[in-house]
C-alpha cells in the first residue's frame, strides 16, 4: 500500500474512538517493569510499534538490539542495558543513526558505563560493554536537547549504589515527559526530590516495587481527532480512555483546540469533542508539547488561522526534520511556514491555494506524525497520503478508525 486517498465525509460525523495506549507511558512502564524483575502487572500495553519493539527487546537475549525508529526505545534501553551490565549493540534505522545520543552516552560513561560508538561519535549504533559504578553520583546534563536522555537516567537512578543527583542546565524542554517519568517511578514505590527552581532531581538508591499499572490512552493520537472535528463541517467524537488529570503533556491539545473551534467535555469514559467557534489567530509555545506542532500547523493552515509558533527547536532532530517536512508539504496547500526568528519563531500563513480543485499528494518522510497530521485535511478536500503505513509507530489502527467516519481508498492506477 503506497498511498491512500481520504475523501471528505458525506454525512455528519458521529463516532466513538478507542485510541491506542500512549507509547510514552507504555515505554516507561515496560522499563520499570523490567526493573521490578518483570513482576508487575501492566494493563493496556500499547499496540504502537515503538512499544512492541521495547517489549520484544527487553525479553530478548540477542546481542544486537534494533530499535527501528523509536527514540524513547533507543534512549531508555541504552541506560537500562548499560546500568544492568548487559553487553549489547544498540542500533536502528538510518534516521535513528542521525539522531544525537552523545549527551546521554557522556552521562552514562560518567556513571561508570563502558559505551563506544560503532560509527560516528555521538550517534548510534552503540556498543555497550559493561558497567562498573563510579564514585560520582552527581551529574549535570543540558535540558534543552531531548528530555528522553533525562528520563532514561532517572529510571535507572535507583539502581545506582549511591543514587543520583541530576542537575539540568539551561532551558528545560518537554518537561511534562520528565514529570511523567517521575510520577510513574513513584507509582512503583520510588521516592524522589525534584526542585524545579534549582533544576535538580535527587533519587537515593532504592528498589522498585512490583505494582499493577494501567496505561492511559494516547493524547498525541487524540490530537488528530481534534483536528478532524475542527475541520469537518459537522462532527461530534468521543475519545475513550483519556483522563482530565493526565500525565501526558499533549493533553494541552484541549486548550489549544478551544482556539481552533473544538470544545472538550470529560465523561466517565473519556472526552467528548464538539464544534464551537474558532479564533482568527493563535500564538503557541510548543516547548512542552513538541509532538503537537504538526497537528496544529496543518489544522491552522486549513482553517486559515494565522499561527505563530515558538518552542519548536527540537523538531529538527525527530523522525525527520519536521520543520523542513512541514514547509514542503504545507506549500502544497498554498500555505507557508516561515521562519521569523532563526530556529525559534515560525508562522503559518495562507498565501493562495495553488490548485484548489486538485488532490494534494502529501509525502510523509518516514514520520508517522506527517501522515497523522495531514490526513484530517480530507475533512475539507480529498487528500493523498503517501506511505500511510508509517502510522504504525504510534497509532497502528488510525486508518481503520478514520474509515469509520469517511471514505478512504487506494488511488486507482491510471
Ligand atoms: O519521553 C517521551 O516519551 C517523549 C519525549 C519527547 O521527546 P523530546 O524530549 O526529545 O522532545 C517527545 O517528542 C517524544 O515523542 C516522546
Ligand atoms: C518524536 C517522537 O518519538 P521518538 O522520539 O520516541 O522517536 C514522536 O513520537 O513524535
TrEMBL record:
Phosphoenolpyruvate binds at residues 23, 71, 99, 148, 322, 369, 393. It comes from the Bacteria. It holds the Pfam family EPSP_synthase. GO terms for molecular function: 3-phosphoshikimate 1-carboxyvinyltransferase activity. One of its GO terms (cellular component) is cytoplasm. SUPFAM superfamilies: EPT/RTPC-like (SSF55205). Gene3D superfamilies: Enolpyruvate transferase domain. It catalyses: 3-phosphoshikimate + phosphoenolpyruvate = 5-O-(1-carboxyvinyl)-3-phosphoshikimate + phosphate. The active site is at 291 (proton acceptor). It is found in: Cytoplasm. GO terms for biological process: amino acid biosynthetic process; aromatic amino acid family biosynthetic process; chorismate biosynthetic process. InterPro entries: Enolpyruvate_Tfrase_dom, Enolpyruvate_Tfrase_sf, EPSP_synthase, EPSP_synthase_CS, RNA3'P_cycl/enolpyr_Trfase_a/b. Pathway: Metabolic intermediate biosynthesis; chorismate biosynthesis; chorismate from D-erythrose 4-phosphate and phosphoenolpyruvate: step 6/7. Residues 59-402 form the Enolpyruvate transferase domain. 3-phosphoshikimate binds at residues 23-24, 28, 146-148, 174, 291, 318. Its EC number is 2.5.1.19. It is an enzyme of class 2 (transferase). Catalyzes the transfer of the enolpyruvyl moiety of phosphoenolpyruvate (PEP) to the 5-hydroxyl of shikimate-3-phosphate (S3P) to produce enolpyruvyl shikimate-3-phosphate and inorganic phosphate. Belongs to the EPSP synthase family. Monomer. This is 3-phosphoshikimate 1-carboxyvinyltransferase. It comes from Salmonirosea aquatica. The lineage of its organism: Bacteria, Pseudomonadati, Bacteroidota, Cytophagia, Cytophagales. The gene is aroA.
Amino acid at each position: 500500500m503506497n498511498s491512500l486517498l481520504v475523501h471528505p465525509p458525506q454525512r455528519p460525523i458521529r463516532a466513538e474512538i478507542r485510541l491506542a495506549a500512549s507509547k510514552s507511558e507504555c515505554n516507561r512502564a515496560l522499563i520499570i517493569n523490567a526493573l521490578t524483575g518483570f513482576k508487575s502487572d501492566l494493563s493496556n500495553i500499547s499496540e504502537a510499534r515503538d512499544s512492541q519493539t521495547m517489549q520484544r527487546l527487553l525479553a530478548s537475549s540477542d546481542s544486537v538490539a534494533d530499535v527501528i525508529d523509536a527514540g524513547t526505545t533507543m534512549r531508555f534501553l541504552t541506560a537500562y542495558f548499560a546500568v544492568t551490565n548487559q553487553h549489547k549493540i544498540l542500533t536502528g534505522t538510518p534516521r535513528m543513526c542521525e539522531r544525537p545520543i552523545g549527551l546521554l552516552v557522556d552521562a552514562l560513561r560518567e556513571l561508570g558505563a563502558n559505551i563506544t560508538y560503532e560509527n560516528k561519535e555521538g550517534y548510534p549504533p552503540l556498543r555497550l560493554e559493561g558497567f562498573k559504578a563510579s564514585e560520582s553520583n552527581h551529574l549535570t546534563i543540558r535540558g534543552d536537547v531531548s528530555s528522553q536522555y533525562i528520563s532514561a537516567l532517572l529510571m535507572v537512578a535507583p539502581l545506582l549504589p549511591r543514587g543520583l543527583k541530576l542537575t539540568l542546565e539551561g532551558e528545560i524542554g518537554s518537561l511534562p515527559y520528565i514529570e511523567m517519568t517521575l510520577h510513574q517511578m513513584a507509582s512503583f514505590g520510588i521516592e524522589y526530590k525534584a526542585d524545579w527552581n534549582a533544576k535538580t532531581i535527587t533519587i537515593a538508591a532504592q528498589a522498585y516495587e512490583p505494582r499493577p499499572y494501567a496505561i492511559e490512552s494516547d493524547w498525541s493520537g487524540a490530537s488528530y481527532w481534534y483536528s478532524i472535528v475542527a475541520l469537518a463541517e459537522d462532527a461530534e467524537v468521543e475519545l475513550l480512555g483519556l483522563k482530565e488529570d493526565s500525565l501526558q503533556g499533549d493533553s494541552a491539545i484541549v486548550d489549544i483546540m478551544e482556539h481552533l473551534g473544538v470544545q472538550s467535555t470529560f465523561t466517565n469514559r473519556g472526552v467528548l469533542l464538539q464544534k464551537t467557534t474558532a479564533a482568527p489567530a493563535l500564538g503557541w509555545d510548543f516547548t512542552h508539547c513538541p509532538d503537537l506542532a504538526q497537528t496544529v500547523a496543518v489544522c491552522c493552515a486549513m482553517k486559515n488561522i494565522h499561527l505563530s509558533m515558538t518552542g519548536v527547536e527540537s523538531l529538527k532532530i525527530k523522525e525527520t526534520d519536521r520543520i523542513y517536512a512541514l514547509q514542503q508539504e504545507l506549500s502544497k496547500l498554498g500555505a507557508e511556514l516561515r521562519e521569523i526568528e532563526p530556529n525559534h519563531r515560525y508562522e503559518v500563513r495562507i498565501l493562495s491555494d495553488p490548485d484548489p480543485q486538485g488532490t494534494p499528494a502529501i509525502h510523509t518522510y518516514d514520520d508517522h506524525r506527517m501522515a497523522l497530521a495531514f490526513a484530517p485535511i480530507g475533512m475539507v478536500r480529498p487528500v493523498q497520503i503517501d506511505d500511510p503505513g508509517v502510522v504504525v509507530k504510534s497509532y497502528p489502527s488510525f486508518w481503520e478508525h478514520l474509515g469509520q467516519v469517511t471514505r478512504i481508498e487506494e488511488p486507482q492506477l491510471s
